[in-house]
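R.M. (postdoc): so does anyone remember the format we settled on? I'll just put the structure tokens first.
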């Protein structure tokens, strides 16, 4: 995943009301992604 794609993903997460940061530990970031997968309708 390119840095641009990652930045876009973070922006989408923020819009969904989830605070994501490029400086977060990877484990916390992946945990957030797993939570989003449970609620795909909230990401669209």
């Amino acid at each position: 995943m390119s840095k641009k794609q990652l930045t876009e993903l973070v922006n989408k997460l923020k819009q969904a009301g989830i605070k994501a940061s490029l400086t977060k530990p990877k484990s916390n970031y992946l945990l957030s992604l797993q939570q989003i997968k449970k609620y795909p309708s909230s990401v669209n």
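R.M.: ...and that's the designed sequence above, right after the tokens. Also worth knowing: The CA atoms of residues 8 and 42 lie 16 Å apart. The helical segments are 3-15, 26-38.
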